[in-house]
Specification:
Strand content: 5-15%
Radius of gyration: 27 Å
Helix content: 40-55%
Largest sheet: 7 strands, antiparallel
Structural class: alpha+beta
Order of helices and strands: HEEEHEEEEEHEHEHHHHHHHHH
Mean pLDDT: 79
Distance between the termini: 70 Å
Shape: elongated
Low-confidence stretches: 38-44, 174-179
């Protein structure tokens, strides 16, 4: 430790504070750098030793968030991973000619971005584990090659440890320590049992979805709710249409065309049971899509309007049937793109992009809640349990 090193440390701490609004403290006595959060809470009692701190911060002004899973700075990339058994910290690192991959707890760069963007204001590092890719020379891989290498490494980790270790995203949990009006409004309330939709097995799928850390797994669990209700919705629609036709035939004289109409109605019912008709069936009978439309990702909203001859500011009421059909295809094709192996799946162009799936899940969340309320309004003959 000398004056030059101390000056370098102080300069880099100032850069971090100016660029990212994250405060660090340098303790000369124990030669450690400590993170200091906005609440003056020194998180890591062990601190960061001088050598790794200088290594990490050599190009600290280049620190950027690649996407919601990864950050990059100089020769480093850190990609967030999720694991539930706390065994991954014992796993060995991997070295290639170009780089080294290792599992790191409390990843330095991820923590800075988490603080800067407000993901975790109290304790940003302790929630995260990451795969750290460190280049050993001047040669660089493409971002796609990096991701493939990271996924290969995680496969090996998962297969050896016997449980899933997968790429994860930044947490965006609400700060429950604050008196947030969105939560405090429930304080001192007493619920009535009638205010809660009646139980159905699909509620378990919904809860599974909320507990899923991965956006794709969450979407599939929400989609299972649609699959659970769709046959009953089709049957109810078919029975009601059939009864109306039979009522009219009992009053009016019956013709060949009437019998043919019953046959066409039966074919329509059989078609509605097909997998690619499931979302359309639910969207047509269980929810008011006009009210839920704003919950969809912006790209999907604009596409649905453009494809159906509507301007950005026009309401969708006059094109509801067409929009339901196209949105149903988007949901179905997104589901298929997730469940089928990439080598066996041929994209249709209707799939929701990966970067928009978190927002699409917000729509699916609201859609499922509406279905549960709809189910609660049905008579015993049609209500699913």
């Amino acid at each position: 430790m000398n004056k030059k090193t101390i000056k370098t440390i102080d300069e880099r701490i100032k850069i971090i504070e100016q660029c990212f609004g994250v405060e660090f403290e340098f303790h000369e006595a124990d030669e450690k750098v400590y993170l200091e959060t906005a609440d003056d809470y020194l998180f890591n009692e062990e601190g960061i030793s001088i050598e790794p701190f200088l290594d990490y911060t050599e190009n600290i002004n280049e620190l950027v968030k690649i996407d919601n899973t990864s950050v990059r700075c100089g020769k480093f990339r850190q990609t967030i991973v999720f694991e539930s058994e706390s065994l991954v910290k014992y796993y060995p690192s991997l070295e290639t000619e170009e780089c080294k991959l290792s599992i790191v707890y409390q990843p330095f760069f991820v923590g800075i971005i988490a603080l800067q963007e407000g993901y975790d204001k109290e304790d940003p590092y302790s929630f995260y584990i990451a795969v750290e890719l460190e280049y050993l020379g001047e040669k660089r891989l493409t971002e796609e090659e990096e991701t493939i290498l990271i996924r290969r490494y995680l496969y090996d980790v998962s297969s050896k440890l016997g449980y899933s270790v997968s790429i994860d995203t930044f947490n965006n949990w609400p700060d429950f320590s604050k008196d947030d009006e969105s939560f405090s409004k429930y304080k001192d309330q007493v619920l009535s049992i009638d205010s809660i939709p009646p139980y159905t097995k699909a509620m378990d799928y919904y809860i599974e979805a909320l507990g899923a850390m991965n956006a794709d797994i969450r979407f599939l669990s929400f989609y299972k709710v649609l699959e659970y209700f769709s046959p009953a919705v089709s049957k109810k629609e078919y029975y009601e249409e059939m009864n109306k036709r039979l009522d009219a035939m009992s009053v009016l004289s019956r013709t060949y065309e009437d019998i043919n109409d019953l046959w066409e109605l039966s074919k329509k019912y059989k078609k509605s049971l097909k997998d690619d008709e499931i979302p359309f069936t639910v969207l047509s009978n269980c929810v008011d899509l006009t009210m839920l439309f704003h919950c969809l990702p912006k790209k999907i909203r604009l596409r649905l309007k453009k494809d159906n001859g509507l301007k950005k500011d026009e309401v969708i009421d006059d094109k509801l049937i067409e929009i339901r059909k196209e949105l149903g295809k988007i949901l179905c094709d997104t589901r298929n793109s997730i469940v089928h192996a990439k080598s066996n799946y041929e994209p249709t162009g209707f799939e929701c992009s990966e970067e928009d799936r978190a927002v699409l899940n917000e729509f699916m969340d609201k859609l499922c809640q509406c279905i549960f309320v709809w189910n609660g309004r049905q008579s015993e003959n049609y209500r699913l349990k």
